[in-house]
């Protein structure tokens, strides 16, 4: 009997891999191993709908939206869920070892282990009232704590920190965001986007402090204040840590696979061992000539489809256009594409509501950031997929719309 395809991690990538294998007609048994109990869940609502104000029914609905599929889906598709932590990959024997000592043989192994939150190495970080956000359990704990605490300090002005800040402020909390760099979300968005969201947060009462390093967290039995590097103290009944993530690549590293910033894979998501693939947040892969690690549900799901096609006998190199989104207050940010590092022109398109920022490298469109312009985002993804060239002067001319480029590109 053929050994199963074993997937370590039943998150976004792992779930979509199992699904895509069945959609591609692969009949091999599939075992989805995840350290977390319960059904595989999506994470985006954890920093959005789950934290929003609402009565028991609204909150119940938000929680019910988390599982990708109900329990009977897995049985119907012959996908076995195993709740266990994988502690070792035994490459010579083609087996994984679980924390309880069991071993599972694999015909192919897929690492979809995601990431873990970074924790700042500062005094007081383990005090009660200092929380982080990764799992449904974290989100339920946080949303409960937001009912009780008035002063909320968010450490880190990235997507997740700002989504938490907007939910907390909408619930009437006094919110301070501490961002070490000179603008929020600077790792992932351009300056006009940072500025828009900083103004929006300020208008809704969130105090964003840039250039602010959290140096210590104080409190007797529970958090009471956050101390900044310059000695300033900010009152805090609740501190939310949101300073980014680290790829969960320990199994791969211990097994001697090539690992750098995440598990190294080729353009078909194969690791340095031909029996092992890696997908999603934990994988570093080549895209448009640059090795990258991306943290998004689109990336995890599209990686999954690429591996499923390869295992079904129709390999294709990975070439999806990356896209991301964030929701803060009533504003929606959508980003299509990734910067090449060679961008030499930026064009801003303003509309009656919202705006888009186009980034060009040698005339080629590489990234489009849209704030409350969903139609621009949809068009941008088509343009990026077709490798559209854009004349910056034309794009700057009055009345120009992104759709004008579609006819040129297709
Ligand atoms: P994950 O979905 O994180 O799954 C990894 C799984 O592996 C976990 O379930 C973990 O338990 C399991 N695992 C790890 N190690 C082991 C082991 N040794 N043994 C067994 N199991 C193991 N992305 C967006 O695109 N848009 C958003 O709006 C958005 N919002 C987010 C909000 C929050 C709060 C968070 C935390 C993330 C958000 N993301 C968002 C990011 C997105 O969820 C991730 O990029 C995506 O889930 C990555 O999928 P993955 O399969 O690589 O990892």
- How does the overall form come out from the CA principal axes? globular
- Count structural domains: 3
The end-to-end distance, rounded to whole angstroms, is 48 Å
Q: What is the rounded Rg?
A: 22 Å
In terms of DSSP E residues, the strand content is 25-35%
Q: Fill in the CATH topology of the largest domain.
A: FAD/NAD(P)-binding domain
- The pLDDT mean sits at 95
Question: What is the percent of helical residues?
Answer: 25-40%
The major sheet is characterized as: 5 strands, parallel
Strand order of the largest sheet: 3-2-1-7-20
By CATH, the architecture of the largest domain is named 3-Layer(bba) Sandwich
Global structural class? alpha/beta
How many β-strands, per DSSP?
Answer: 27
Unreliably modeled segments:
none
CATH class of the largest domain: Alpha Beta
CATH homologous superfamily name of the largest domain?
Answer: FAD/NAD(P)-binding domain
Query: Ions, cofactors, ligands: which are bound?
Result: flavin-adenine dinucleotide
The number of helical segments is: 11
């Amino acid at each position: 009997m053929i050994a199963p395809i074993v997937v370590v991690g039943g998150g976004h990538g792992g779930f979509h891999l199992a699904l895509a294998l069945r959609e591609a007609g692969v009949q091999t048994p599939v075992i989805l191993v995840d350290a977390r109990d319960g059904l595989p869940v999506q994470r985006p609502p954890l920093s959005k709908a789950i934290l929003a104000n609402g009565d028991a029914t609204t909150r119940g609905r938000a929680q019910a939206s988390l599982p990708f599929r109900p329990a009977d889906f897995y049985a119907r598709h012959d996908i076995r869920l195993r709740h266990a932590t994988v502690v070792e990959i035994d490459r010579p024997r083609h087996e994984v070892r679980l924390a309880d000592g069991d071993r599972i043989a694999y015909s192919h192994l897929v690492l979809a282990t995601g990431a873990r939150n970074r924790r700042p190495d500062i005094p007081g970080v383990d005090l009660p009232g200092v929380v982080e956000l990764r799992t449904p359990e974290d989100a339920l704990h946080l949303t409960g704590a937001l009912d009780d605490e008035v002063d909320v300090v968010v450490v880190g002005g990235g997507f997740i920190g700002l989504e938490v800040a907007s939910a907390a402020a909408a619930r009437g909390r006094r919110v301070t965001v501490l961002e070490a760099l000179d603008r929020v979300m600077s790792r992932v968005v351009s300056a006009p986007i940072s500025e828009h969201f900083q103004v929006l947060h300020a208008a809704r009462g969130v105090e964003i402090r840039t250039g602010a390093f959290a140096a210590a967290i104080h409190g007797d039995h529970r958090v009471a204040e956050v101390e900044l590097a310059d000695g300033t103290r900010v009152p805090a009944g609740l501190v939310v840590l949101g300073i980014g993530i680290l790829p969960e690549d320990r199994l791969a590293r211990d097994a001697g696979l090539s690992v750098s910033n995440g598990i190294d894979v080729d353009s078909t998501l194969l690791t340095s061992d031909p029996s092992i693939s890696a997908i999603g947040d934990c994988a570093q892969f080549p895209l448009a000539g640059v090795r990258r690690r991306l943290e998004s549900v689109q990336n995890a799901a599209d990686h999954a489809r690429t591996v499923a096609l390869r295992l079904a006998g129709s390999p294709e190199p990975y070439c999806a256009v990356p896209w991301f989104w964030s929701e803060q207050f009533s504003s929606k940010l959508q980003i299509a594409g990734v910067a090449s590092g060679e961008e030499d022109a930026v064009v801003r398109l303003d509309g009656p509501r919202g705006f888009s920022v186009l980034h060009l490298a040698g005339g080629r469109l590489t990234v489009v950031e849209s704030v409350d312009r969903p139609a621009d985002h949809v068009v941008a993804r088509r343009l990026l997929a077709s490798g559209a060239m854009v004349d910056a002067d034309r794009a700057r001319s009055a009345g120009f719309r992104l759709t004008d480029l579609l006819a040129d590109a297709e």
